[in-house]
Amino acid sequence: MTTTTIAYETVIGLEVHAQLSTRSKMFCGCSADYASTAPNTHVCPVCLGMPGVLPVINNRAVELVMMTSLALNCAVSSYSKFDRKNYCYPDLMKGYQISQFDAPIGLKGWLDIEADGEKKRAGITRVHLEEDVAKLIHRVGFDGKAYSLMDVNRSGVPLMEIVGEPDLRSPEEARQYLMKLHTILQYIGVSTANMEEGSFRCDANISIRPVGTTQLLAKVEVKNMNSFRAVFRALEYEAKRQGDALANGERLAQETRGWVEAEGKTVSQRSKEFAHDYRYFPEPDLPPLNISREWVEKVRAELAELPDARRDRFMNEYSLPLYDANLLTATKTMAEYFEACVKTGQPANLSLTVRAKQISNWLLGEFSRLTNANLIEVNQAKITPVMLCELIDLTQKGTITGAAAKQVFETMFSTGKPAGSIVAEAGLSQISSASELENMAAKIIAENPQAVADYRAGKETAAKFLVGQMMRLSKGRANPQIATELIKKKLEEK
Amino acid sequence: MSDNLNWLTIHAAHELLARKKISSVELTQACLDNIEKVEPKVKALVTETADFALAQAKKADATIAQGKATPLTGIPALMKDVLCTQGIRTTASSKMLEKFVPPYNAAVIEKLIAAGMVLVGKTNLDEFAMGSSTENSAFFTTHNPYAFERVPGGSSGGSAAGVAAGEAIFSLGSDTGGSIRQPAGFCNVVGLKPTYGRVSRYGLIAFASSLDQIGPFTRDALDCALVMNVISGQDKRDATSAPEPVPDYTKNLNGNIKGMKIGIPKEYFVAGMQPEVDTAVKTAIKKLEELGAIVDWNVSLPSTRLALAVYYIIAPSEASANLARYDGSKYGAAFLNTDSMWEGMEKTKQFGFGPEVKRRIMLGTYALSSGYYDAYYLKAQKVRTLIRREFDAAFTKYDALVTPTSPTVPFKIGEKANDPLSMYLSDVCTLPINIAGVPGISIPAGFAKGLPIGLQIIGKPFAEETLFRISHAYQQVTDWHTRRPMI
C-alpha cells in the first residue's frame, strides 16, 4: 500500500478589536473608564439605549482611528459613515450596534513583520470604528440556578476593529503580526491594548490548502484567545486539526470555534451555515463623516514616531547595534526613558555614542532585570533618567568601581535616593590611596600562603584569586587596576 | 368669559395674561374643566397631568407678575405621548411602554418648559406613531371632535383632537409621513411638519429616524410661528439637527403675498379624491390668487407616485432597528416568568407590540435582509434622491407648492382598520414631503357636510417663514380656522 502525502499551507487572517483611549464614550458624554468603577455608574440614557435618545459622534475617537490608519499605512477615506449592525443580544442596549460597514475610516494598509528570520509585509484590509457592548456576568445562585448580571459601563466605549488580509502563513507569523500591532497601538497612544483586561482582543480566520493552490478550503473562525501565546497555540492546534481531518478523509466545516486554554484545544461553537444576517444599513441618526485633508494632516502631525522608524533613528543617531536598538524601542516608555537619559548630556571627554551605549547597557542590563523582577513598568521606576546618568558619571570619573555601581544601583532602585548620597552614606567611594591599598595587599599575601605558593609554582590564575580576595576585603571599593598591580608586585617580590 | 378661555389662541391668551386680565391658573383650570367635559367623548389623552399643570401655572403667574412673560408663559399645551417627559410616563400608546417613566425630557419639552409652557396632558396616538387614525393605539381610539364616529387622523390624532376640542391652547405632534398634517386637516387646526433638522429629535421616541420631525398644532398661523420660535434650532444632542439660524417667524406676517409664486402639482389631485375636497382646495387656491399670488396650475412632480412605495420601505426598515431595543431587559414591559432569557425576550415582543407595529417590523426586516437589500432599501434610497431633486427643481420656480392635505375628509372609525393598504393611501399627499425633507403645513380650508378639509402648503428647506406668511394671509380673509366643533 502506498500513501501520498499532500503538503498543506496555512492561511491566517486576524481581526483585532482595540478599545480606544478616549475620555468619554463613543456616542455620549459618559466616562469611558468602565473598569475601575462600580457597575452601572458610568451610564446615561444614551448608552442605556432608552427610548428617544440619539448618538453624537466622539470626534476624538474618529481621530484615533485616523491615527491608527496612518500608522498602518492605510488610506484615510475622505468620506466615511456609520451603519447599524442589527442583532439581538441582551448586552446590546439598542438591539443594534453602531458600526461601519462599507465606508470604513481606514483602507488598504500594511504591517511589516519578521518571523522565523524572514521579513514579511502583511496587508491590512480596513480599520473601522464602532461601539462596545455591555458586560454580562454569569453567576449561579444559592438555589443552584444560573443567572446573569449586566454592567452597562462598557456599553458605548469606542472600539476600533483592524481587519488583516489573509496573508499570514504560520502561527508564528500571526503572533509576530499581533505583537507588532500591539506595540504600535501602545506606541501611538490610541489604546492601552491590554489583552488580559480585554482592551485588545483577537479573532483569527484560519484555513489550509494544498501548497500551490489558491482555492481556500473551509474557513474556521477561532475566538476566545486571551494572550499572544494563546493565539499561537490555538492556531498551531487548529492547523494540525484541519490537516489531520483532511488526511483522514473528513470534510471540514465552515464554523466558529472557541479556544479552550485549559485543555489546549478548540471546540466548535456555531456553524456558519446559520450565519447571522446583520441587515446593515446606514445609521440615519448620524450624518456621514467628511474627513478633510487638513484634518488628516493635523492628525498626522500628532502621530508619534513609530517603533521601526525610531529603531532606525537610534542606530543612525547613536550608533547603537541593532540588538540594542530593537530592545530599546520595543516599548514606547523604554525608548522615551532612553532618550531622556541621552538628553541629560555627557562629560566633554566622552562622545555621544559612547555615552548612549553606556546608557543602553544599564537599561538593558540591571534596569530591565530589576523592573522585570519587580513586575513594574519602566515609567514606574524610582530611578529617574537624571539619577541614572549621575551614577554613570560617578563610575566614569572613577569615584566608584563598576562593582560598587551595581550595589548603588540596587539601592537607588529600591529607595529612589540619588547615587551621590548612597555612595557617601555607605562609604562606597573607590580606594585609590597607595598606602591603604599596600597594607591591604600585604594582608592578603600573608593570609593566603597556599595561593602564593601556587602562583610561584607557575599557576597564573592564583593571582586573580588574590585580587578577588582584595576586592572582597575592600567591599568592592579597591581600584581594581591598582589592586592587580600591587598584588603582582608583591608576588614578584621574593 | 372664563368658560371660553380654553378656546383662545396663544397670542390672544398672552395678551390677556401680560395685561393681567386673566391668570395662567385660570386659563389652565378652564382647559382642565373642559377636558373633564369633553374627554369622555373625544378621548384625546393617555395621561392627564392636572397637578403638574396647576403647579406650572402658578410658577408662570409669578413670572408674569414680575413682568417677564414671554409668548408661551402660562399657556396650557398637550404633548404627543412619544415626547419623553421626565417623571411623567411616556407610553407611545403601546403596551410595551405603558408604565415607562423617562428619566429625562425631550429637547422640545425642555425648551417649552423653560419658555413657561404649562403641560396639561400627554396625547393618544397610533402605537409608536404607526398609523393614520389612532385606531392602532394599544389603549383606545380618539374621536374626531367634529364627528365622534369618525377618526381624528393620525398618528398624532390625540394632539390634533385635543386642540380642536379646546382641551389646551396648542400641542405638539410628530410627523413621519403626514402624522401632523393629516390629523390637523381632519380636525380643522393648523399643523406644521418643519424641515427635517429644524427641530431637535432628542427625546422623541423614534419611528423612522430619517423622516421623523416634531411640530406644532395651533389655532392659527401666528400661533404656529410663536411655537416654532421656541422649539426650533440646532441641538448638540441631535447630530441631524441643522445649524441654520432661527429667524423670528412672526416677523413678516403682514398679510401681503403679492407676487409670490405658487405651484399646484397635479399629481396630488389623485384618483379617488373626494369632489368636496377637490372643490374646497381649488377655492382656497383661488383665494390665494385673489391675494396677489401668481399661481401655476400646471406643475408636475412625476416621481410623486413613487413616494408611497419608497416610504413603506424606508420607514419600516428604520423602525425595525429602532424598535429592537424593546426586549424587556431594561425598561418597559417584560415577561420574566419564562424558562429562558430568549423566551422572555420573544414573549415581551409578542405581547408588547400590536399588529401594525409587528407588520412594519416584519416589512422592514424583510427589506433589509441580505439578498433583498439592493432591490428594496437601496433602490428606495435612490428614488428618494430623485424625489428630492424634483422638489429642488420645483423650488427654483416657485416659492411654495399647494395641495390637498388628504384626498378625503375624516373617515369612519373601523372603515379602514382592516385594510392597511387603503389606510396607507390616506397619507399619499403628505408622504412625499417627508421623503424630500422639506417643510409642509396644513391649514383649515373648509368643510364638507360639517367635516373639515385641510390645505397643504409646501416650502423650500428652512422656509417655514414662507408657509406662515401664506397661511396667515389666507387666514386674514377666511374664517375656517376660527370655527369650533359642536361639543
If you had to describe this structure to a student in words, what would you say it looks like?
The complex is a heterodimer of chains A (494) and B (487). Chain A is of the alpha+beta class. Chain A has 3 domains: 16-298, no CATH class; 303-426, no CATH class; 434-492, Arc Repressor Mutant, subunit A (Orthogonal Bundle). Chain A is built from 15 helices and 16 strands. A 9-stranded mixed beta sheet of chain A has the order 2-6-7-10-1-11-12-13-14. In chain A, strands 5-4-15 form a 3-stranded antiparallel beta sheet, with no helix packed on it. In chain A, strands 3-16 form a two-stranded antiparallel sheet. Chain A is elongated. Chain B is of the alpha/beta class. Chain B has 2 domains: 2-259 and 400-482, Amidase signature (AS) domain (Amidase signature (AS) enzymes, Alpha-Beta Complex), CATH 3.90.1300.10; 305-381, no CATH class. Chain B has helices spanning 10-18, 24-42, 50-65, 107-114, 157-164, 181-186, 221-231, 275-290, 304-322, 341-352, 355-368, 374-397, 420-425, 431-436, 464-477; strands spanning 45-48, 76-80, 118-123, 170-175, 190-193, 213-218, 261-265, 294-299, 400-404, 440-448, 451-459. In chain B, strands 1-3-2-4-6-5-10-11-9-7-8 form an 11-stranded mixed beta sheet, sandwiched between helices. In chain B, helix 9 crosses helix 11 (355-368). Chain B starts with 9 loop residues before the first helix and ends in a 10-residue tail after the last helix. The mean pLDDT of chain B is 96. The chains are: A alpha+beta (494), B alpha/beta (487).
Protein topology:
The complex is a heterodimer of chains A (494) and B (487).
Chain A: E1 8-19, H1 59-71, E2 75-76, E3 79-80, E4 83-86, E5 96-99, E6 106-115, E7 118-131, E8 135-140, E9 146-151, E10 158-164, H2 171-187, E11 200-210, E12 220-225, H3 228-247, E13 255-260, E14 265-271, E15 281-282, E16 289-290, H4 293-302, H5 307-318, H6 322-328, H7 332-343, H8 352-373, H9 385-397, H10 402-415, H11 419-426, H12 434-447, H13 449-456, H14 461-473, H15 480-493
Parallel strand pairs in A: 12-13
Antiparallel strand pairs in A: 1-10, 1-11, 2-6, 3-16, 4-5, 4-15, 6-7, 7-10, 8-9, 11-12, 13-14
Chain B: H1 10-18, H2 24-42, E1 45-48, H3 50-65, E2 76-80, H4 107-114, E3 118-123, H5 157-164, E4 170-175, H6 181-186, E5 190-193, E6 213-218, H7 221-231, E7 261-265, H8 275-290, E8 294-299, H9 304-322, H10 341-352, H11 355-368, H12 374-397, E9 400-404, H13 420-425, H14 431-436, E10 440-448, E11 451-459, H15 464-477
Parallel strand pairs in B: 2-3, 2-4, 7-8, 7-9
Antiparallel strand pairs in B: 1-3, 4-6, 5-6, 5-10, 9-11, 10-11
Helix pairs in contact in B: 2-3, 7-15, 9-11, 9-12
